[in-house]
Design goal:
about 350 residues, alpha/beta, TIM Barrel, six-stranded parallel β-sheet, two-stranded antiparallel ribbon, 11 helices
Length: about 350
């Protein structure tokens, strides 16, 4: 009778599986990811390597010496909490962060614009104390420009009514506002000393959200050629809320990580962060195999650094407020070993 091994589900809860069951999950996860993204399944040697990682009884798993990657963090220092400097120092000195990030609790460029004078002062203060590269981060958050909170008719209300043209026009108009706000905030933060910008969860509101981000990145790159710009995605496939939006002749709706990388690179991003969402009812092994399968074509084609999103609910890491270390360590190692990512 096969020995049962303690492992996790995508929600972080403990389960016990045999080595054969873990292997079956790895194969099934890869096949599921390949079917959706049209990528190739993982090879037998890659499945075997993942099996060694997830069937191990060790509490913690890590890459081999010399295979370490850059650790970039979002949401390190919240200026609104009044402790941005101490927070980013904690991440730099204690958490091993290779880059840190200042942020506002609303985490939206639209919201940050209203408190920009406070945020720029926090950036100046933090830069006096931090050695690691210090970025400023927020979400494009296209939905904030729709009614009732914003000035644009809400496309999510127009679409069910069959008012397709109006819904599409609303998204395009909202995108112009979002791009303007992102460029405005970026310029102020870069002038205040930020080493770079992070556009987190790009595409969360669909292809219009991603287009607004790409347009902002292009303008920022033109105005500040040396700025670091990270485009981190919201999910593995761009939702077609508009459906017909393009960037440099490429349709954004339905893009998977490889094509997302192509447009982010063309816009002027210096780091790309693919994201693959977790299925909480499947094992961590299943989720990691799926993530590796979907992102492998992206890392193979990349000409800029790829920092895989590996946090709460993405990249195989369980969807939990405090993801368990045993699962996070295994997922992180697997992403580095299989994908050869430049960072996490």
């Amino acid at each position: 009778m096969e020995r049962r091994i303690a492992t996790r589900l995508g929600d972080g809860s403990f389960i016990e599986l045999t080595r054969s069951e873990i292997e079956a999950d790895l194969i099934a996860g890869s096949e599921f990811g390949a079917k959706r993204s049209k990528a190739a399944v993982l090879g037998d040697d890659e499945i075997a390597h993942l099996l060694d990682i997830f069937a191990s009884e060790a509490k913690f798993s890590a890459v081999d010496l010399g295979d370490e990657v850059v650790l970039s963090f979002d949401g390190c220092g919240n200026a609104d909490a009044g402790t941005p400097v101490s927070d980013v120092i904690l991440y730099q000195n204690h958490h091993g962060a290779d880059s840190v990030e200042l942020w506002h609790h609303d985490y939206s460029y639209k919201a940050v614009k209203t408190v920009l004078s406070f945020e720029t002062q926090a950036m100046k203060d933090a830069q006096m104390m931090v050695v690691a590269p210090l970025n400023y981060g927020a979400m494009p958050d296209l939905g904030r420009y729709s009614m009732p909170d914003g000035p644009i008719p809400n496309w999510s209300e127009l679409l069910p009514l069959g008012r397709i043209d109006e819904a599409r026009a609303s998204q395009v108009e909202a995108g112009t506002h979002a791009t303007r706000d992102m460029v405005h905030v970026a310029g102020a933060m870069l002038e205040a000393g930020a080493d770079g910008l992070d556009f987190d969860t790009s595409g969360a509101a669909g292809d219009g959200d991603l287009l607004a981000t790409l347009n902002a990145v292009r303008q920022i790159r033109a105005a500040w050629p040396d700025a670091g710009i990270e485009v981190g995605m919201a999910g593995e496939c761009v939702l077609g809320m508009h459906g017909e939006l393009e960037f440099e002749g490429r349709r954004l709706a339905g893009m998977w990580p490889k094509d997302q990388l192509v447009v982010a690179t063309a816009a002027g991003a210096t780091i790309f962060g693919p994201a693959v969402n977790v299925n909480t009812t499947k094992s961590v092994a299943w989720n990691v195999a799926r993530a590796c399968t979907i992102v492998k074509p992206c890392t193979a084609a990349a000409t800029i650094p790829v920092h895989m999103n590996a946090g709460m609910g993405v990249g195989g890491v369980p969807m939990s407020a405090y993801p368990p270390t045993d699962a996070t360590a295994r997922a992180s190692r697997a992403l580095v070993d299989i994908l050869k990512v430049d960072g996490l």
